[in-house]
Amino acid sequence: MYHSTFTQWIIKNKRIFVRADLNVTLNDTIITNEFRLKSILPTIDFILKQEGSIVLATHIGRPIHKESNFSTKILLPWFEKHGYSLIFIPDISTISTMKVTPRQIILLENLRFFPGEKNGDPLFAKQLASTADYYINDAFGTIHRSDCSTSLLPYEFSENKRSIGFLIEKELRALNKLKDNPSHPFIAIIGGGKVEDKIPLLHNLLKNIDALLLCPAICFSFLKSLGHETGQSLVNNSTLSLCKKIILEAEQRNVSLQFPLDYQVTHNSINEKLSIVSAAQFSHNLIGISIGPKTVEYFSKEINNAKTILFNCAMGFSDRPETRQSAKDIIDAMTKSSAETVVAGGDSIDIALSTKNYRSISHLSSGGGAALAYLSDIPLPGLAPFEEY
Q: pTM for the complete prediction?
């Protein structure tokens, strides 16, 4: 088990680099979900109470260039509204010359505006390290990625000056219940986007689960690998051979692999009128958006019989609420279950928070891909610097 050690530091008049995951859901530049922002506050509040100073760093989106709508400046009003005073500093090189002021928060520009973040540039790691005396990683949603600020930067600090934060510790504690000794039956409901990231993780997940319920869009890569009609739905062709291997291994492990009975679809374009078709009627001009009512009913029965449930399945689009109703219905079924329940991923949490009884969910995890990766027991670059010494 990984533990936060920063509570033992003497940090008065010291500067702490806090890598957070504040990759918030946006409508243009309007923050539509505060979950990740609120999740980082316990770590921030502890540092400020000890009269430490913070360099707060995050990424937002997947910018190609320095796009203003992805600037971390959009976070300033939210923090100010909640009683925090932040100084926005776009030029990292100026921070090391600034006087350390207790309880000060310096907000860096979007880390992905700097090529070194995704390129794993050791010089960029050194530049970031020059801004602080200590390092905390509390960006759970990025622990499965080899970004410079999470995989290289920690090593610029000695072992006793780097730590995970309260959020990562909380996330791992909750996920360990699913990883180490889950109650069975254990079902995983997987769908949504980032198909190329999720499919490789499902292979290792099979050893812990009893049933895998596949939903749009991820189900279509599996269905195509079996030769089924997927129309114009999202398919990742590079993963088809892996899908076949997962299907075979699921059979060998006696893991029930379940596909939708019906679908919510559009014709030719995702913006067209929605309709419901059975799986048998799926034709070449259809785009699968979400699951249909028969599938909701069938999967809800599976949920009622489960003892452990993992949901990473943000079907539909935030700007078309009717496409997200089926995902809400599935989460509603989870809230009525006595099982250990986890909803993982920013978009999945968006949907969960729109349900009436979301507080009945055992754990809302801020990282979908990170949660899947951790449960799949693969090496995680963002956790490697914090192995117990």
A: 0.94
